[in-house]
Write a structure and sequence with these properties.
Elements (H helix, E strand, L loop, with lengths): L1 E7 L9 H13 L4 E5 L3 H11 L5 E3 L18 E3 L3 E9 L8 E10 L3 E9 L5 H16 L5 E6 L7 H11 L3 E3 L17 E6 L2 E8 L11 E7 L3
Parallel strand pairs: 1-2, 7-8
Antiparallel strand pairs: 1-12, 2-4, 3-4, 5-6, 6-7, 8-10, 9-10, 11-12
Helix pairs in contact: 1-2, 3-4
Amino acid sequence: MLTISTFNIKNDSSTYRREKAERIIEYLEDNQIDILNLQELFPKCERDLRKELQKRNYKIYGKYRYYFPWFSSINESNAIITNQPVIFHKTYYLPSFPSFTKRVATKVVIQNEKIGTISIINTHLDYQYDYVKKKQLKYLQKLIEKDKNPILLTGDFNLKNNKELFFWFENVLQEKGIFPIKTKGKTLKQSRYHRAIDHIFISQDFEILKAEIIKTLSISDHYPILVKLIKRSD
């Protein structure tokens, strides 16, 4: 069994306190999470997380969207934290123009003794323009089409699951045997609508044992999604 979570932790670099990293570690340990995919991870929080994760046999993967240190307060990565053996990792820069914010996707390939080799992709899409978002989704589509492994795609898509663009992407992935995990309720706390904008897509190779939105964490403006899965038996 693998336990996976996606969580936009909110970039609050200007008011950050170490307690936030400690709460993320508690969430990781309390739920025995094997793969924790974070969006909006900023340098101050990452430094504290790394110190604690080194003691717990976890590693962080994922580069930041800007190279220059003077962007540190607004710099973010879509990090993948895992205790699984990693055989490949890379950060991809998504098309973003004319949006002023760069967007990235982090990919790792893990090898699990019981489930096998899996490609995991974590991203955070544009919030301003749907046509930019569609370009980013098409980039992810091509990335997935080149991959021969079962896929786990997670992230903050800034896209509710009743929108035409979501249906389009859902249909594209279904042709590849990849399906969204259905969750009830909102993942953005201040949303007026009870629909998720954070999503997890999984290959049909997996069977879902549990999927829920966790509403007990107060460190972000998003709720994390937690999923437990096993390899589907033939």
